[in-house]
């Protein structure tokens, strides 16, 4: 019996895209489950956190929002917005459906976001994760990120765990932020084929 081959692609779109709703709902539920007893320390509810920034912050030319689609359904995604340092992109909302973790999917989304940040002229990534997300910490450390906190300290004493990573120089021919024409991969609703799965965290 022959098995079917799943079709995968990265889709650059808006945070309001209905395809993203299941991911946001799952992220909200997981965030609330992990931090319900310490909500005052980590901010408001997950819904409040997700609505904290305007959609324009995650749109070209200054930001991006990407979904990884499998057979037309979103299985993972992530975004970036401009940091207060104009050369730095701040990554947000990197999340994979729970049943598909430990297949390297989050690592692929992270790499795609890094490549898009380079295409949009950024030189550095900054991000934070919560103190009850050890799998995210492992993902970032394993992908070349530097922890901006004491890795030997109790993470619950830090709450928000910051990381940074330098990006390679901008690719020749890529369009910088503010240019009249966006690069093809950053165009809204633009889809690019996803590469093969690799093993890894998340």
Automatic annotation (TrEMBL):
<dbReference type="InterPro" id="IPR050832">
    <property type="entry name" value="Bact_Acetyltransf"/>
</dbReference>
<feature type="region of interest" description="Disordered">
    <location>
        <begin position="171"/>
        <end position="202"/>
    </location>
</feature>
<dbReference type="InterPro" id="IPR016181">
    <property type="entry name" value="Acyl_CoA_acyltransferase"/>
</dbReference>
<feature type="domain" description="N-acetyltransferase">
    <location>
        <begin position="18"/>
        <end position="168"/>
    </location>
</feature>
<dbReference type="GO" id="GO:0016747">
    <property type="term" value="F:acyltransferase activity, transferring groups other than amino-acyl groups"/>
</dbReference>
<protein>
    <submittedName>
        <fullName>GNAT family N-acetyltransferase</fullName>
    </submittedName>
</protein>
<dbReference type="InterPro" id="IPR000182">
    <property type="entry name" value="GNAT_dom"/>
</dbReference>
<keyword id="KW-0012">Acyltransferase</keyword>
<keyword id="KW-0808">Transferase</keyword>
<dbReference type="Pfam" id="PF00583">
    <property type="entry name" value="Acetyltransf_1"/>
</dbReference>
């Amino acid at each position: 019996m022959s098995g079917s081959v799943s079709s995968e692609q990265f889709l650059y779109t808006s945070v309001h895209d209905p395809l993203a709703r299941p991911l946001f709902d799952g992220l909200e539920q997981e965030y609330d489950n992990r931090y319900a007893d310490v909500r005052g320390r980590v901010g408001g509810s997950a819904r409040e956190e997700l609505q904290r920034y305007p959609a324009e912050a995650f749109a070209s030319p200054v930001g991006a929002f990407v979904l990884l689609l499998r057979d037309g359904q979103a299985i993972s995604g992530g975004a970036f917005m401009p940091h207060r340092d104009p050369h730095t992109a701040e990554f947000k909302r990197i999340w994979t459906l729970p049943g598909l973790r430990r297949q390297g999917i989050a690592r692929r989304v992270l790499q795609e976001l890094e490549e898009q940040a380079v295409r949009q002229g950024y030189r550095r990534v900054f991000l934070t994760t919560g103190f009850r997300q050890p799998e995210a910490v492992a993902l970032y450390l394993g992908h070349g990120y530097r922890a901006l906190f004491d890795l030997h300290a109790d993470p619950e004493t830090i709450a928000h765990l910051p990381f940074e990573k330098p990006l390679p120089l901008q690719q020749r021919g890529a369009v910088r932020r503010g240019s009249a024409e966006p690069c093809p991969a950053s165009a809204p609703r633009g889809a690019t084929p996803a590469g093969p799965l690799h093993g890894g965290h998340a």
